[in-house]
Design goal:
The protein is α+β, with helices and mostly antiparallel strands and 120 residues long. It has 5 helices and 5 strands; from the N terminus they run H-E-E-E-H-E-H-H-H-E. The chain has a single domain, classed as Outer Surface Protein A, domain 3 (Alpha-Beta Complex), CATH 3.90.930. The strands form 2 sheets. It has a 3-stranded antiparallel β-sheet, with helices on one face. Strands 1-5 form a two-stranded antiparallel sheet. Strand 2 (23-26) and strand 3 (32-37) form a beta hairpin. The longest helix is centred in the C-terminal third of the chain and has 14 residues, at 96-109.
């Protein structure tokens, strides 16, 4: 049986436990705002960041993104995250696997999460 690249990515996704790699806060509505520093270079962080009025970019997540982000504790596997999304949002999050895959790829590209294998 031939497995497509997409199926392979989704199968491997279930073995991962992502961990947040950025500061964040919660709004009054329960949505997450991820705080991304404007500079990552250690010298710029030391010399410029303290003088900026707004040292962070603020990324506001929607309900689904907030629900995913809050579970990225480094101990919860993606399969549990998917099940909790199905329970909380029902058919509104379908196809949940590809939504989680896309969201985590975006976060990983921005260095906002680190991925670890749960099968060590």
């Amino acid at each position: 049986m031939v497995v497509s690249k997409k199926e392979k990515q989704l199968a491997n996704l279930w073995d991962l436990t992502p961990k947040r790699n950025a500061e964040w806060e919660t709004t009054d509505e329960g949505k997450v705002v991820v705080l991304v520093p404007k500079f990552r270079n250690p010298l710029l962080v030391k010399w410029l960041l303290p003088y900026l009025a707004k040292p962070y970019f603020r990324i506001k997540l929607d309900d689904v993104g907030s629900a995913i982000w809050q579970q990225l504790d480094g101990g919860t596997p993606i399969s549990h995250v998917a099940e909790s999304l199905k329970t909380k949002f029902g058919a509104a999050v379908e196809p949940v696997e590809s939504r989680i895959n896309h969201f985590l790829n975006q976060l990983e590209r921005g260095d906002l999460v680190t991925m670890e294998s749960s099968t060590k």
